[in-house]
Amino acid sequence: MAPEPDTMPISVDFLGGLETLFSNNPHHTISLPLLNPSDSSPANVGFLISHLVKNHLKHPRTEFFVHSDGHLTPGILVLINDADWELEGEEECKLQAGDKVVFVSTMHGG
Amino acid sequence: MAPEPDTMPISVDFLGGLETLFSNNPHHTISLPLLNPSDSSPANVGFLISHLVKNHLKHPRTEFFVHSDGHLTPGILVLINDADWELEGEEECKLQAGDKVVFVSTMHGG
Amino acid sequence: QNGTSRRLTDEEFDRYSRQMIVPEMGKEAQLRLINSKVLFIGAGGLGCPAAQYVAGAGVGTIGIIDSDVVEPSNLHRQVGHATSRIGMKKVDSLITHLRDLNPLPTYVPYTFPLSPENAADIISQYDLILDCTDNPATRYLISDVCVLLCKPLVSAASIQKSGQLIVLNCPPTPQGKLDKKYPPCYRCCFRKPPPANTQLSCGEAGIMGPVVGLMGVAQAGEAVKILASGLHLPSSTPETPEDDPHNLIQPTLLIYSYDLNAAPGPFTFRALKMAPRKKNCFACGENSPQTLTLEGIRSGNPNYVQFCGIQTAKTTL
Amino acid sequence: QNGTSRRLTDEEFDRYSRQMIVPEMGKEAQLRLINSKVLFIGAGGLGCPAAQYVAGAGVGTIGIIDSDVVEPSNLHRQVGHATSRIGMKKVDSLITHLRDLNPLPTYVPYTFPLSPENAADIISQYDLILDCTDNPATRYLISDVCVLLCKPLVSAASIQKSGQLIVLNCPPTPQGKLDKKYPPCYRCCFRKPPPANTQLSCGEAGIMGPVVGLMGVAQAGEAVKILASGLHLPSSTPETPEDDPHNLIQPTLLIYSYDLNAAPGPFTFRALKMAPRKKNCFACGENSPQTLTLEGIRSGNPNYVQFCGIQTAKTTL
Ligand SMILES: [Zn+2]
Ligand SMILES: [Zn+2]
């Protein structure tokens, strides 16, 4: 499919059970607006998260992905182009077309 | 490393035990001459196999990879850019810079 | 499926509740498992762990065929046997273990080798076959009979530090059918066996226990999902591979590479996409009804031992 | 290593020959296994299969700690227990099974829970720790004590249809050392636990047997390779991650995703590369000697239960 204007393709993977919140599909290629409409700032990971919640999260138990304040639930690991997001500035990390973001829910059962 | 002139980079993976014949390394990026020097024809998979035997096969038991006639030992699966080589013309399949070739030895133990 | 509407007994509920509450499982899937029949060919390094988890999951009928007896050199990896059962037939030893793990299934022992003469009679009685054997001749025989009897096949193998796994002939498709894309058989993927001088058994080449164990558990995982989700049932509208969400028509060959000198890395697990059923396949292709029949197999055609270039199938691991 | 030059007994040779002939194993690696001590924390869905293969491989001393008793709902996945041992302490049940599989190791039972008070005393007696537990509070405790006592840790977890595995603190590196890149601890990778209302146990959320089984066997595989190859020994010349061929300093987090509706595909196994030890890590970072000590842990600081936001660690699976 052709990309929508003023958007960029971002590869998003959900692992460790998070895929069940997103139509049971571990892999999505989404069209993310280049700018965050709320303040016209360039799209970063924080904006990606709110975009995912608004457009792709199809499950009543949203608390498994985000807090009520919109921040990512603790215990979810984020890798941006294979690097730990803590090293990339977490939600502030700017995104570019083609970036690969992986969300992994930590497991504790045995 | 810069590529040598008149060669192209080919990604070659060895799996299923074949890696033990190739310095115990499952992944190689090799510089394959663009032309087969014996007849100046464009490099194909048959030439890649003879090139691997001559330059990379570091093990006395060569019969696990090639017959004495230089053909690949039966029971080895070849995937060229993720496709079964039988569908690609087997040894006749032409190679291009960046192609990915996977050799997998079939196992029978249990 | 008959019986998927009955109630579970209290004992069944006690045993299976933890898997029944998993999303997409549930009571109907559990009853499909209880109503299913699975055959394990081989009670060794693959068959032991595979059978533990299939029996634990509650598959109702479990057949196991193997002619070997338990030896001390088996026990580092064949975790369904025991020191106290050395010398016993592996099938009887494994069933002893499984029956204590879960007494509810019906266990059917076959303490003789699978052969071209008996293969069809035995395989025909099951819904799903697990190839846990140790030699190429038996692997080709199993696949051929599965094609002819329309049985899905979960095939695994392992040697030294490597393992492989593939789901074949699933959904099961009649021999010779090629109007669309259909799933491959073992011969579609592995047309010719390796020459006899490059065929190594686990006895000769060695095997790491956790490697063959992991492949066996993965086989059980595929068996449970196929039966629980009905993936083994002939599909009325088979997808084309382009939009096959089930990875069945072009299954992946899973390769596990265990490296003694490194933690898991990008090459530890590889998933290689195989081609669908091949037009020229001896067993399932266009002209296969002329080349492969149950009658033929029973009377020695093809000759599996000759095809694999060895005098006798190796059965000791 | 003392004892790696002695001869093997006939019985040892009988049992271990099939793994000793694997390339890069051999007699010395076998003796390293025999001279090693491994602690399993948890005798459930991970601990059962992990212990089967570690015991089979001949690790000389095997400690197991768990306070639970065997219940019918365990048996679909906890394949080291049995119907005849329902009601028995899991540790005693599993050791009964392991002793029949391999009588040669020394088995050490601990039939009480791991706690901040006893963790260091127990963990200090082993060479390698396997985290097979089922709750975040115990996972953070285990990792913290492993950092302080310089023990490598093979950590696995599983729920519903997913599993994860990572090798941590290997080669073991003293707390606070950051002059080069060193391997991470559990807190480096998982800084904060999930909120209590999103923590699900296998009892509440369910678990597929072959999924947790596969993670357990994979854990055994990592344990055997670490001990056989001496990867747990402090390295005199630690590599930089750029050229670390062992994947230890930046280990991969292995994720297994089991899909009931599909055969294995490209997402079935993912290997995600983690960062090395983090400067700001509470347990192993720059200022960690001020924030985390064995004394502190023993006297309730940090408070693991409070940190994980639950009243009591869940121990029923
Ligand atoms: Zn075929
Ligand atoms: Zn740390």
**DSSP E strands of chain A, number:** 7
Global structural class of chain C: alpha/beta
Could you give me the name of the CATH homologous superfamily of chain A? Answer: Beta-grasp domain
Order of strands in the sheet with most strands of chain A: 2-1-7-5-6
| Integer-rounded radius of gyration of chain C | 19 Å
Helix content of chain C: 25-40%
From N to C, what is the helix and strand string of chain A? EEEEHEEE
Quaternary state of this entry equals heterotetramer
Number of helices of chain C: 12
Detail the poorly predicted runs of chain A. none
Characterise the protein shown here.
The complex is a heterotetramer, with two copies of chain A (110 residues) and two copies of chain C (317 residues). Chain A has one helix spanning 45-55; strands at 7-15, 27-33, 35-36, 41-42, 76-80, 83-84, 100-105. Chain A has one domain (7-105): Beta-grasp domain (Ubiquitin-like (UB roll), Roll). Chain A has a five-stranded mixed beta sheet, with no helix packed on it. A two-stranded antiparallel ribbon of chain A has the order 3-4. By secondary structure, chain A is mainly beta. The longest helix of chain A has 11 residues, at 45-55. Chain A is globular, with a radius of gyration of 13 Å. The termini of chain A are far apart. Chain A has one helix and seven strands, in the order ββββαβββ. In chain C, helix 2 (27-34) packs across helix 9 (209-229), helix 3 (47-57) runs parallel beside helix 4 and helix 3 packs parallel to helix 9. Chain C is built from twelve helices and eight strands. Helix content of chain C is 32%, strand content 14%. Residues 311-317 of chain C have low confidence and may be disordered. The longest helix of chain C is centred in the C-terminal third of the chain and has 21 residues, at 209-229. With 317 residues, chain C is of the alpha/beta class. Chain C has an eight-stranded mixed beta sheet with strand order 3-2-1-4-5-6-7-8, sandwiched between helices. The chains are: A mainly beta (110), C alpha/beta (317). The complex binds zinc ion (ZN) (2 copies). One zinc ion binds at residues 184-185, 187-188, 277-278, 281, 283-284 of chain C. Chains A, B: There is a cross-link at residue 110 (Glycyl lysine isopeptide (Gly-Lys) (interchain with K-? in acceptor proteins)). Chains A, B: Belongs to the URM1 family. Chains A, B: This is Ubiquitin-related modifier 1. Chains A, B: Keywords: Cytoplasm, Isopeptide bond, tRNA processing, Ubl conjugation pathway. Chains A, B: Its main location: cytoplasm.
